[in-house]
Amino acid sequence: MSMKIKIFEGITRNVFILGLVSLFTDLSSQMVFPLIPLFMVTVLGSGVYAVGIVEGAAETTASFLKVVSGYWSDKIGRRKPFVLFGYSISAITKPLFAFANIWSFVLYIRVIERIGKGIRSAPRDAIVAESSDESVRGRAYGFHRAMDGVGSVLGAALAFLLLPIFGYRNIFMFAFLPGMVAVFIILFIKEKKRASEEHKINEMSIKRTFKELPTNLKLFLMVSVIFALGHFGYAFLLVRVLDIGLADQMAILLYIIFYIIYTVCAIPFGILSDRIGRKMVLIAGYVIFGVTSFGLIFATNFYSILGLFVSYGIFYAMIDGAQRAFVVDLAPKHLKATALGTFHTAIGLVALPGGCIAGLLWDKISPETTFIYGLTLTIISLILFTFVKDK
Q: Which of 378, 166, 217, 208 is nearest to 293 (CA)?
């Protein structure tokens, strides 16, 4: 059997369609998001602290909706309306970045755009889970994240090529088109009819529903929160590129390399998590992030930071799909979306304090301190992870 058949074996219609949706959405998003930190620093003249606030506040604000949308998706037995509405909000708001003259306006639009992500994330991930056999769940999430990565590479490549020609603001406007293509594709999703026994949540309050989540899952959520608090994200890698004296264009090029690595590795690591277990893959991912943080402390030139963008891509491919699959593995059957929403919310709520801490350490002490902070919380997360059971 060929490698191509093995990779696509078990990838259902819905998973493939959602992959296309993510491809076009991220093509749109990555024409915008890697440019935002650079736009803020070089055009609007804001500090790195403002970058941390924007990135952190966006994720934290959206996170309040992730658990709610997951709960209501389980309660009414529908996923598609949440997915359609969430992607629509994101597509409509991206061109508005073109009108920003102060960083607070960037913050405002970023938050609205991420609200769309908050509405769609848990129901979308639940569709992936419900459309896939448990034996290929990691592969399904890996495929979805890989399609996401293809869109990201294409979007970032367009940003790299078009930035010197059209400038930041015109690129932000053009990002509207692929976003609307993604919204149209969602119409072709066919929702799986859910069995009546899965509707036990209809008789439960959201508070009581949370209490039904297993202790082992709650422990994993705690580990994820601690790790997320120190996960400074790609925005700080991009600013680090500027900090060591490289140009905006070079930062975008390195970002493209990061996403190429991520895209190539996402499916293989998803398949690996099906074979050896999610926990082993996630622990390995945490270790690689720790190594990346350590390396960023000493990065001083293009070649050193190139290797760190590569390692960051490997890390991100290892955890992005596997952690979603792990949450589904640990969750009760009738609470998949609620569990996924709780996970997304939990890690998102610490994005703002995490971003603020990382930005303050950068501005008030040194860039190196930001990466020491990330390394420290990674070590703590690894120690706690040993207490989480596979099932």
A: 378
Length in residues, the chain? 391
Question: Residue 247, SS3?
Answer: coil
| Distance, CA of 128 to CA of 14 (rounded, Å) | 7
Average pLDDT of the residues in 198-224: 71
Show me where the domains of the chain are located: 13-191+213-385
Rounded (5°) CA angle 99-100-101? 120
List Cβ neighbours of 108 (8 Å cut-off, separation of 6 or more): none
- Model confidence at 324: pLDDT above 90: no
DSSP string, 16-77: HHHHHHHHHHHHHHTTTTTHHHHIIIIIS---HHHHHHHHHHHHHHHHHHHHHHHHHHHHHT
* Calpha distance 359→76 (Å, rounded): 41
Contact 160, 252 (CB under 8 A): yes
Q: Read off the pLDDT band of 200 (50, 70, 90).
A: low
* Model confidence pLDDT, tens digit, residues 99-158: 999 988 999 998 899 889 889 988 898 898 888 877 788 888 888 888 988 998 899 889
List all residues 6 or more positions away from 339 whose beta carbon is below 8 Å from its beta carbon: 70, 213, 217, 327, 328, 330, 331, 332
DSSP category for residue 327: H
- Distance separating alpha carbons of residues 58 and 128, to the nearest angstrom: 25
Which residues, at least 6 apart from 316, have a Cβ–Cβ distance to it below 8 Å? 258, 262, 285
Would you say the C-alpha torsion 26, 84, 174, 48 has a positive or negative sign? negative
Among residues 147, 109, 86, which one has the least CA distance to residue 341? 86
Q: Which residue has the tokens 């055009």?
A: 43
CATH 1.20.1250.20 for the 13-191+213-385 domain, yes or no = yes
The letter for the amino acid at 120 is R
How far apart (Å, rounded) are the C-alpha atoms in residues 313 and 181?
Answer: 27
Sorted by sequence, the CB contacts under 8 Å of residue 304 that are 6+ apart come out as 295, 298
E strands present in 87-191: none
